[in-house]
Every structure is written in C-alpha cells, then in structure tokens.
Design brief:
The complex is a heterodimer of chains A (211) and B (182).
Chain A lengths: L2 H11 L6 H24 L6 H5 L2 H24 L13 H17 L2 H9 L3 H23 L7 H20 L8 H26 L3
Chain B lengths: L3 H12 L3 H25 L7 H14 L10 H19 L29 H5 L4 H12 L4 H7 L4 H21 L3
Helix pairs in contact in B: 1-2, 2-3, 2-4, 3-4, 3-8, 6-8, 7-8
The chains are: A mainly alpha (211), B mainly alpha (182).
Chain lengths: 211, 182
Amino acid sequence: MKTDELVAALVADRAVPGRGFARGLPLALAAGGAVSLVVFFVELSIRKDFAAALATWRFDLKLVLVLLALVSAFGLCRALSRPVPPRHAGWWLLPLLGLATAAVAIELAAVPVEAWRSRLVGSNSLICLSAIPMLALAPLVAVLAALRSTAPASPLLAGAAAGFLAAALGAALYAFHCFDDSPLFVMTWYVLATLPMIALGALAGRRLLRW
Amino acid sequence: MSNSDDLSVLMRAARNGDDEAYRQLLGRVAIWLRGVARRGLARAGRGIGDSEDIVQETLLAMHLKRDTWDEAQPLEPWLHAIARHKLVDHLRRRGFHDHLDIDDHAGTLAAPEAGEAGTAADTRQILSGLSERQRRIVEAISIEGHSARDVGSTLSMTEGAVRVTLHRALRALAVAYRKERP
C-alpha cells in the first residue's frame, strides 16, 4: 500500500471527531464509580450521624477537599493524556495543595497540642488504608481503559494521574463513611492510601498506555 | 512557521466534515513526515528503506489520535510530538536507544521532499494480518480508489457498515505496526 492509498483510506474514515476524548474520561469515572458505589454500600455504608456531621465544618471541609482532589485529578489526567501536555499541567494541583495546607494549619491552631496525636491517629486509619484503594480499583481500570484511546506524551505520568484520579474518587466515596474528619487524619491517611494507587497507575500506564 | 495557521484551519475544516481539506492536510503532512523520517533514520545511522513505514505508521496514529489535538493550540507542535514519538518508537523496536533529536530547523512542513521511494516492503504483510473482509474493504478504498458507498453495494453491505469495518481495520493496522519487528 502506497502512502497516497493509505491517505485515501484515512479520508474515507473521516476526520469528524469521535466522542472518545471528550466523553471518555467522564464516562469511565461514571462506570467505575458506579461499581465502587455498589462496593461502598455492600462493604461500608454512609456514617450513621451523616446529618449531624454535615453541620460540622470539619466534615464539610473534608468533603470539599476530596471533591477538589477529584476535580484536580481529572484536569491533570486529561492534560497528561495529550501528546503535547499543556505547559502548566501541574498547576491543577495548586488549589488542592493550598486548601490542604490551610486546612491543616487551621486544625493545628484550633486543637491543643496534646490532642494533635489522637486527631491524627483517629480510629479508622487501617480501614481508610484498605477502603480507598478498594474503592479506587474499578475506577482505575475504567480510566486506564479510556486513556488507551488517547496519546499521552508520557504513559507513565498519565498512568500515575489515572491512579490519582481513581484514588480521589475512592476517597470521595470513603469520606461519607469515615467519621474521622480532622484535616490531620485526612491529610495523613487519605494521602497514604492514595500513594499506592498512583504507583499502581504509573506501572500499569507504562505498559498499557503506550501507543 | 508560515503555514502552521492553515494547517490548523485544514484540520478544523476536516473535523467539520470537509473530506477534501483532510486529504490536503494528510498529503502535506505525509510529505513533511517523509523528510523527518529520512533525516531521523540517517541520524540514527540507518538506511532510509524504512522511511515509508514510519510515514504510514505516523499518519495512522495522527488519524486515530486526532481527538487529542486541542483546537485552542496550533496543530504543528502536536504533529511534531506524534512524529517524534513514532520515529523513536520505530527505532527502539530496532534496538536503537540513543537520544534522537528530530526538532531540527530543516523540518518545516513547507520543505518539499523527494517523492515516495516505493511501496513499503512489509505493508503487504501487515495488511495480510487483517480479516478477509477488512482487507478487501481497505484495498477497495485505498488501492482501488472506490468510495465507501460503492464498496458497500459491491459487498452488499450498508455504507455505514463499510465505514465501521474500515475504522476497525485501521485500528488493527495501527496495532500491527506497533507489534511489527524487523
């Protein structure tokens, strides 16, 4: 086949954009999130004092943190799935880092030094470390599958972002179960639960996202 | 670069369904790619016999990954990134691991290059990896130059079914290229 002949075939296939890139990632999150939602209700369920918790600033701040993480990870993942990532793709993380730092600072100021340790350790650290990766697994598979139709400049980084995005979704669900609302707890254990998913995503991405 | 604007314009028109604009764009990109591939191969100390394979593999990638171009950005850096990626990947499969810089100043899309050297040696072999129906449709449209509609009436398929099969065939071709070893 000569190159001109290949061009004829490509033209016949048409350049009209598929829905792939625009809708792929949101659809993957919805599909993976639906599976994780089922897992959530089977294994964990919403905390019993949900209504009362909503009235506390720590719980609300926790929800804002996990939702902001979700948005940041989504933006980062999308940016890194392009052959030419936007110059400042990392800026997606700035608002999250800012809010996280502020949340920890406020908590340290609001709570006496003697209580810092108990706030950080909480009562759910081990559940947190296992539940977030568990809830992130289906989203990770779905997100990686969606990214296979993209062309990431670095499959490793795109995979890492996919792991982060999946973990953020897992954390967003888990936040409704866990009654440890202190920013000290969240910024310790949620982050520790996210790191293995980032590593797993990076490893999988390096293999699966090559193009 | 003088013509990068109209490349983006061509791609935008192609996205809106202008097949002629897409044909023009692919034709110009193919000519540019041929130069990139030959220079890259020469720089890696390889013969240019494989250059048409690289051109075709890159065109396929560009086509299948076209949605990853952000319309707010110029097209050319995106084309460069895909060409670099495919050239490096091609050389890597052949055991070349050194750094390769293809962003030379000669690599403008305007630079005319010598024509295609001939049919790439193993494209036939790659086509033979398609299913019978896929191969017939690809050959009818590309080599014989029929329209999707004509091919449909010959094979008693709808035009839509022909296009679906064609699209799958192109994706299969891209995979075959990626797995291909010398």
